[in-house]
Amino acid sequence: MEKKEDQQQQEEEQVVNPWEVSAKDGGKIDYDKLIDKFGCQRLDQSFVDRVQRLTSCPPHVFLRRGVFFAHRDLNEILDAYERGDKFYLYTGRGPSSEALHLGHLIPFMFTKYLQDAFKVPLVIQLTDDEKCMWKNLSVEESQRLARENAKDIIACGFDISKTFIFSDFDYVGGAFYKNMVKVAKCVTYNKVVGIFGFTGEDHIGKVSFPPVQAVPSFPSSFPHLFSGKDDLRCLIPCAIDQDPYFRMTRDVAPRIGCHKPALIESLFFPALQGETGKMSASDPNSAIYVTDSAKDIKYKVNKHAFTGGQESIEKHRQYGANLEVDIPIKYLNFFLEDDAELEHIKKEYGAGRMLTGEVKKRLIEVLTELVERHRRARAAVTDEMVDAFMAVRPLPNMFD
Amino acid sequence: MGSSKDQLLTRLKELQIDFSQYEHPVVLTVETQAKYVGNMGGALSKNLFLKDKKHRYYIVSALADTKVDLKVLSQRLGLGKGGLRMAPEEALGEIIQVPLGCVTPFAVVNESARHVSLLLDQGIKTQERCFFHPLSNDMSISLNAHGLDKFLKSIGRDPSYVDLEANPPVGKDQPPDLAAFVPSGSTVLPDLPDKAPSSQDCTGNDVSAGAKSAAVTAKAVKPSGNVQNIKEKPVKGAQPSIPSADAGKFVEELLDKTSTLLLSDISEDSIKQHGGQLGTEVVNNIQKCLREDLKNLATIFKNTAYTEGFYAGTHYQPKRL
Hints:
Chain B: This is Prolyl-tRNA synthetase associated domain-containing protein 1. Chain B: InterPro entries: ProX/PRXD1, YbaK/aa-tRNA-synt-asso_dom_sf, YbaK/aa-tRNA-synth-assoc-dom. Chain B: Belongs to the PRORSD1 family. Chain B: Residues 24-150 form the YbaK/aminoacyl-tRNA synthetase-associated domain. The complex is a heterodimer of chains A (400) and B (321). Chain A has 400 residues and is an alpha/beta fold. Chain A has 2 domains: 14-272, Rossmann fold (3-Layer(aba) Sandwich), CATH 3.40.50; 294-380, Tyrosyl-Transfer RNA Synthetase (Orthogonal Bundle). In chain A, 48% of the residues lie in helices and 10% in strands. In chain A, helix 2 packs parallel to helix 4 (74-82), helix 6 crosses helix 7 (139-154) and helix 15 packs antiparallel against helix 19 (356-379). In chain A, 46% of the residues are buried. Chain B is α/β, with parallel strands linked by helices and 321 residues long. Helices cover 34% and strands 12% of the residues of chain B. A 5-stranded mixed sheet of chain B has the order 4-2-3-5-8. In chain B, strand 2 (45-52) and strand 3 form a beta hairpin. The longest helix of chain B is centred in the last third of the chain and has 37 residues, at 278-314. The two termini of chain B are 50 Å apart. Classes of the chains: A alpha/beta (400), B alpha/beta (321). At the A-B interface, helix 7, helix 19 and helix 20 of A face helix 9 of B.
């Protein structure tokens, strides 16, 4: 089962928690070690096949390419689904900035696929309170950012008749808060310190935040949606750095009479400058933003993407590219739908027959199309639509 | 034809609006007009007849020395930086039915000018009297703002005055302050050059329409996002507009996308290559390439329609029992 977290990972170890992700010694993140340490399971091909069988839909590119690579209890969710017991999805975003980059979109793109394939409802939490506390934003600013981010999230294509978006500042209270207290009673101060690394200097807002992110995993937190369905299971698609919250939640769940939420977790999206680089809001060249123009994308990929190509054409033809560190290949791995084409590019590029310029060109095409599509969808999202998505309303067709 | 000068003057008298009239030779510019009535105790006005990219028209009536910057005005209306131009001469006769050099706030009395938006300089209110042409350039009449308002109200127009020299910032958090002046329900001229939906409240965000094939937003919606030509700042429409899920436009977009793909798939080469099988090939390709795209469009349509219904539902008035 889960390993007990007695101390925070430090020293020469890699650091992965909701507020910090850094590899050991400026190297790459070791995902095997992470899975081992966190105690989740690897997602293998048999799962991908099973999902395809159950949903009769082609598996999403992120599943096929191992972007979503780890899980907890996914087999239980699938077993229940096969028996006719549905589940609901829960994901979220901490609205710390207005500018979203492609990495931010990944869990949402995947969640949309899950919603469509399994035909299940979805709740999306905007943790404006968390950002207000951690990033020291004003309450108004974090609420404003939450609404702005909601528009980009909606643009990912969620079905309004099956999706409830909520911000903590708006929604916490009532049944949700009752669950928060129930969860909070089950987690000692020492335990949160152990899981999240809080110190005596951290303010009490931070210390009492974790239950807020935990309780959307329980259907009783949403009486307007799931009243009478206390048995409903929850599946949480997220990036693997969110695992600590849900380890805590899974620990508490049986003690308050709820199902443990299942998780399906993704890799981190690399910065343009390479795996070792950090995507940072202050460096616009470290990522592709959804507001970037075609020109921006071309410039960023050409000038800033870290490649595994050799220094000269002769050397490249001789040795081929280093696919391990090549960012264009990694990005194509995320976003190029066609498996055959990707394989071909990898083969030719790895052998040195294809040049970096060609790979970059293809990547620019793919990214531009993606960003364009997102922008168009975003343009169709109005404030009224956001209000509708965020209204506390019944969703009678959520399982259709 | 449109109302004449005499009809207007009669009307003003009927409404008991106090005005003075001065005849003079035909004048085409404010400078020339000044020669005749410049010292008659009334401020001169300059009147602009403008048009935006979506063929909506505006009359801007200002004191002669108020600075009017079309770029700023365009932004304040939510039309982007270069959204306003001087209207072409033909429009003068067609839409507001006055000759050249005769633009005047009184022109909105004509039925054809029903959808022309009127922006009045608040400077007019500060003057005792102000000169305007009464639908003809061989006369100028002076009246005060109160009289002008009375006339406008009598024809169902809501007189509102604006500080035309102001230059408030327009951006994400500051919606264009004059957006309410953009006409809605305008009669759109038939020769729409671009494919962008003739949205009622669309603030001239020319989503790169013609560029790629039918790649436009699915329906007339109030843009709230960042869809823009590359260098423009995003502008948010300020009115509480309710987007409409337009089935016709939606279908057009679906057909456009499919047609584009069909046209690119059926060529001399592909006919040679596939012969009789071309049909099956093309269908497979369409299904593969378009499925996701079309589903996304359909989801946007559904969400918009739902939002319309939601708004209606939350604003409905229960039956009185």
